[in-house]
């Protein structure tokens, strides 16, 4: 409760400072509207059908991208983490591809995939695969070898050891990677919409910033994106705490 109150106090303080600065005249309110104006636009947008369709388009693209990333990265991470020869053989290509900024690939993706939803989904998948993949790989380095040896001493094969020992112990690391990738995927979806067009929050912000230059709508749309990201992270944190309660207990005990 105390943490929540402190968080609300910090948020309120930030809004007050923002309001004072915006109304001080240092910057024209046209370019930096106060939060009182932005919050009004925020409420109005929640009743705007067109904006809600844009919001749904972004969230749907995010969900598809994250699902594909999990389906690719978790099995690949399990394979690379358990078979050292494959991990060493693929290290160079992985380390070459991983640092490439996904936003820089937008022109290439538009040419290869087109300007539809596939572009933002593809780029979001490319960007969000890496945190899940590396967390899954590194999870194997944290597994107690005694647990693996004990499972093998009971006659369990590689596959049984993978699913009864390795995967349960890797779950907290994998879920942490998913939380990181969830934020990355949302950023890439909105950024691609902003730069490549199409429906979504990014396109809404782009349209609001051009023409009449409605910065109040730009900030209100950005606020919605931030709230969506916050809610996603909170949901994954709750899943982590409740779904992997045994891992948290084990960590506290150690």
TrEMBL record:
Membrane spanning residue stretches: 52-80, 92-115, 121-140, 161-191, 211-232
Transport keyword on record: yes
Keyword entries, A-Z: Cell membrane, Membrane, Transmembrane, Transmembrane helix, Transport
UniProt cross-references to InterPro entries, sorted A to Z: MetI-like (IPR000515), MetI-like_sf (IPR035906)
GO biological process: transmembrane transport
Residue stretches in coiled coil: none
Ranges for domain ABC transmembrane type-1: 55-236
Family recorded in the similarity comment: Belongs to the binding-protein-dependent transport system permease family.
Listed name of the protein: ABC transporter permease
Provenance organism: Saccharopolyspora thermophila
